[in-house]
Amino acid sequence: MRVAIGSKNPTKADAVRSAFGSVWPDEQWQFSLHSVPSGVPDQPRSDTEALCGARNRARNALNAGDADFGIGLEGGLHQVADRWYDSGWAVIVDREGREGSGTTIRMPVPPPILTLMDAGLELGAACDEIFAERNLKQRGGFFGVMTDGVLDRANTYRDAVVAGLAVFIRKELWD
Fold first, then answer.
1. Where along this sequence does the record place binding of substrate (predicted)?
2. d(Cα 72, Cα 74) in Å, to the nearest integer?
């Protein structure tokens, strides 16, 4: 079975590989990575934008990879009351038109990082600047740096992909 991932980010690719391997451990998977457009701003500022970006990436990856499944992952911020939270969306689509989706955990974004984001930086770049790091988004990401590595981007995205795969695992409930 072929899976086209709508990203060339190794952390996101690891999350998808782990999720599919966990759900269907006996299946032989072929994964391909594709740089595809999300159709949303580089830093989504709502669940609606992030979900739309993940969906667009999944559909674009499915077509680019001539695959059985297309996967899109898109991080974004969402405001609840006076706080902004970071989370990521995963969307999985197949050739029959089925779609599954899931999210990562949500974590509040501290004011110094929000200030940099309001000045135009994406979350990853803002974290790089605050923590004097380079390319955190391709490693532990925001979740990892904020929890000293207890959580990391790959595992939280893995869980989001597994949640999205529920539509395919229990498809009889969705047909």
1. 66-67
2. 7
H-helix segments, the chain: 10-23, 47-65, 111-118, 123-130, 141-146, 153-169
Sequence-separated (6 or more) residues with CB below 8 Å from residue 169: 23
DSSP classification of residue 24: S
139 residue type, one letter: R
pLDDT digits (tens, 9 = 90+) for 13-55: 999 999 999 999 999 999 999 999 999 998 999 999 999 999 9
CA 150 remoteness from chain centre? 19
Structural domain 2-173, CATH architecture:
Alpha-Beta Complex (3.90)
> Does 61 carry a binding-site annotation?
no
* Helices and strands counted in the chain (H then E): 6, 6
Task: Give me the residue spans of the domains in the chain.
Answer: 2-173
Q: Find out whether 66 is annotated in a ligand binding site.
A: yes
**With 0-12 CB in 10 A as exposed, 13-18 as middle and 19+ as buried, what is 139?**
middle
